């Protein structure tokens, strides 16, 4: 559902967490970048870090204090494999948790991958008035999160509510 209000473009940062991907094969980061810019947002930062709690936190901490960043899209490190540590790295940075993000992501994902969705630790929250959404590393999962949740919640015209006013009000 959308209203006729004016679109507000956001400053978006994209972080890929992976021990195996590089810039040449970061299809999930590419998808999120293209999806955000295609909707009219500006990607102001993009990085790729290994699955290491402190490297993830270091990058996110810089972006959280950057007034030009309204939302951060994190892909990777949300599973249960040995080094998957995105939730442990990110959750302590939240001022408020967006419980519904992970819940809705898993509900949408259930139709696509069945019960395997329980192995996704997708999560979202707010830190210093910056929205952070963490999703699995597969491009399909990023597509599910973007199309099913993020494109509307990051669109100022979406009703009855969206995150834009929370992220852009002073």
UniProtKB/TrEMBL annotation:
May be involved in the biosynthesis of molybdopterin. Gene3D superfamilies: MoaB/Mog-like domain. This is Molybdenum cofactor biosynthesis protein B. Pathway: Cofactor biosynthesis; molybdopterin biosynthesis. The keyword Hydrolase does not apply. Keywords: Molybdenum cofactor biosynthesis. The keyword Zinc does not apply. Pfam families: MoCF_biosynth (PF00994). Belongs to the MoaB/Mog family. Residues 13-157 form the MoaB/Mog domain.
